[in-house]
Amino acid sequence: MLSPYSARGLAARAGKKAGERAVLDHLLRFTGMAATVLGEGEAPDFILDVEGRRVGLEVTEYVRGRSPTGSALRQQHRFIQMVLTKAKLAFEAHSDLPLWVTVDAEPGLAAASPDSLANVLAERVADCLAGNEIPPRLGPFGMTMPASPLFHECEVPSDLEPIIGRLTVVELPNRSVARWKIRQSGDTSVYVDGIATLIASKDERYPTYLLRCSEAWLAIDAFGGDILQAITPSVEVVQHRYRTAFPRVYVVDRAEPRVLRLDTEPLR
To answer: CA nearest 155: which of 129, 186, 181, 119?
Structure first.
């Protein structure tokens, strides 16, 4: 019998491979490329037959900041989401009312612990539902939410002001799935330096890829299955020419029906 750790590891690997296959499917579909999958594995992730050539495809994700824990923005959102998740549990320990709670993320630092902040947030949500709410703010298009007894604009507690800029609550029908989440995920733009750094990190392994194929291409997953990882290539990213060992580099946007092929030139 597999240990829980082994089972989780296998599940994580299966999820990773499923995401890689989704990138491959999107690439083939939206480029119209005629290719047969000969096999899959690691380094590279797939072996393709493309017009009689044995081509490897390496799939990778772009992580803002390129650090083991991600960029400062992602770390901040991870912390805020942890507070939201704990607050949801604290609220639901005393109420079975399903809620859609959303917050705007702020870049500050909170002085209290996540557990303490979560309790403060859960108490404020309960207080807001009891009638202690504020007038709805204008939305992004200058409109307010339609008047509804199920929508609540809540005052953000002072302890949470460094990390939360707005707090809204919507009461859901019974047996709905409750959601406590960040309303916005920040700037998703990615720039030339970031893409060039990612490509260069993969260039180092190019000789290894050639052990299984005659040439290898790189596919950068622009979505990653997680809105906190999603990227939006800038105009400069698309127009820049990258020096790389890969004859082809694609940016695959699974959230949109498009695939971008980046301009490349061989390393010298």
So the answer is: 129
CA–CA dist 164, 154 (Å, integer): 11
Q: How far apart are CA 163 and CA 70, in angstroms?
A: 18
**How many helices and strands, by DSSP H and E, does the chain display?**
6, 13
Span 112-121, mean pLDDT? Answer: 96
Residue carrying structure tokens 């709905």 = 176
Pair of tokens at residue 11: 């599940």
Domain count, the chain: 2
Q: Domain of 147?
A: 72-182
Measured between alpha carbons, how far is residue 231 from residues 11, 95, 131, 228 in Å? 25, 37, 39, 9
The pTM is what? 0.56
**Amino acid making up residue 64:** R
Query: Is residue 6 in some structural domain?
Result: no
- Tokens at residue 150, please? 């199920």
Which whole number is the average pLDDT over 4-9?
A: 51
Question: For residues 169 and 158, is the Cβ–Cβ distance under 8 A?
Answer: no
Shared domain for 43 and 126, answered yes or no, is: no
Work out whether strand 99-105 and strand 179-182 pair parallel, antiparallel, or are unpaired: parallel
pLDDT over 80 at 154, yes or no = yes
Q: What is the dihedral of CA 4, 21, 258, 204, to 10 degrees?
A: 90
Instruction: Summarize pLDDT for 33-57 with one digit per residue, the tens.
Output: 999 999 999 999 999 999 999 999 9
Q: Which two tokens stand for residue 259?
A: 């695939």
